[in-house]
Amino acid sequence: MAVRRRMRCVLDLGTTTIKAVLVEQLEDGVLKVLGTGLAPCSGMSRGQPINVDETIAAVEEAVQQAEDSAGRPIDSLRVAMTSEQVECQQRRAAIDITRNPRDTASSLVRPEHLRTVIEHARKEEALAIDRRYLHVIPQDFTLDGIPGIRNPVGINGLRLEGRVMLVSCPVTATQNLGRCVERAGLSVEGMGLGILGAAEITLRPDERDLGVALLDIGGGTTDLAVYQAGRLRTVAVCGIGGENITRDITMALRTPHSESEEVKRRWGCCSQKLIRRDERFSVGTMGGGHGEEISRSQLCQIVQMRVEEILDWVESRLQASGYHRLLGAGIVLTGGGARLAGLPELAVERLGLPVRVGLPEKVIGVEESMEPESWTAALGAARMEQSQVPAGKSQPRGMLARLGGSLRQWMRYNKRLSDTAAL
């Protein structure tokens, strides 16, 4: 009998670009990239749509590219998202396993006991009507007063207590994103925070145990996730990202936005120690004037001010969480902004912690030309188990909506096949 291939598609809804990736899950958690798509998007701001039509067009373009490169259609996917209004809360709940301590069979902890504890913790306090859970993540368990048990299944006990991390966001945040994806003719299997996907594929087990902060610098937001003793401790999102640096360059140098982005990528640096004072380069100005000579040191000052603002926010969040001095593994940088020259050096200087750049691990088919730091959220979300995002699943659509979406997807895919044959 033929073995069914385990495929998974993820859509990373970033502020400046939308990425689609189709992967095959191999043994031992290895992912094989089958197809990718990347489309610029001007319809998003800080991770949320501000122009629905432009967002839908970008989603369609990214998915089309992924379908073309994989050679197969895509009709459903997971969504990696971000939201400035994300909140984390810890809840506890306890249940009695049995009232007869001498009955070995009835006192054995089973998976259903864990599910019951987690569900009780989730319902311990009513969630505001305008919010929804994105992730319900078990932290650890206490069995008969013995704390710190990660998996009590198979152990005998009388009373089981569990601690659960609840990650929530505004209902409208997921509604707006889900509507854009569905209007592109696609079905949403689940929705979760991109930063947790990035953590899944960049952080090593020993780093999570020692304590580590993952910093995902995207186009419109900077996302922070802190792990300690192997567990997620807090998540936070700041509405500043690489796009803010590009705009700063545009305003300061009076250059077109597209050229400012290229200047940032090619010449941008946020540490004066890494550049020569006499380095200069030429840039165009608004109105198509002659190129102007700019000092790289001057550019560095512009970039460094914004990066320091981001790092100041990170420091304040770490101190507020109480884990600033418990990060034995330091900081891991990822996202497109992690490619900025001088960022690791400046982060070490400002935060006083070891810093490394996080790349996708145990992934086949990711090339350097793809800028792998930018794909960690999408690839990590593809690796995460569905049980980690139980509340992110969209509501089932009606029959007509599903039929319309499937028809649009079928027509779109077959049109590309016809165009290819005509060539």
Describe the protein's architecture and organization:
- The protein is α/β, with parallel strands linked by helices.
- Among the domains are: 87-170, Dna Ligase, domain 1 (2-Layer Sandwich), CATH 3.30.1490; 206-360, Nucleotidyltransferase, domain 5 (2-Layer Sandwich).
- It is built from eleven helices and 19 strands.
- It has helices at 52-70, 111-122, 171-183, 194-202, 205-210, 242-253, 257-267, 296-321, 343-351, 376-383, 399-422, and strands at residues 7-13, 17-25, 31-40, 44-45, 48-49, 76-81, 87-96, 131-143, 146-149, 159-170, 187-193, 212-217, 222-228, 231-238, 280-283, 292-295, 330-334, 355-357, 363-364.
- The strands form five sheets. A six-stranded mixed sheet has the order 11-6-1-2-3-19, with helices on both faces. A five-stranded mixed sheet has the order 14-13-12-17-18, with helices on both faces. It has a four-stranded antiparallel sheet with strand order 7-10-8-9.
- Strand 1 (7-13) and strand 2 form a beta hairpin.
- Helix 8 crosses helix 9 (343-351).
- It is globular.
- It starts with 6 loop residues before the first strand and ends with a helix.
- The relative contact order is 0.15.
Summarize the structure.
The chain is of the alpha/beta class. The protein has helices at about 50-70, 110-120, 170-185, 195-200, 205-210, 240-255, 255-265, 295-320, 345-350, 375-385, 400-420, and strands spanning about 5-15, 15-25, 30-40, 45, 50, 75-80, 85-95, 130-145, 145-150, 160-170, 185-195, 210-215, 220-230, 230-240, 280-285, 290-295, 330-335, 355, 365. The strands form 5 sheets. Strands 11-6-1-2-3-19 form a 6-stranded mixed β-sheet, sandwiched between helices.
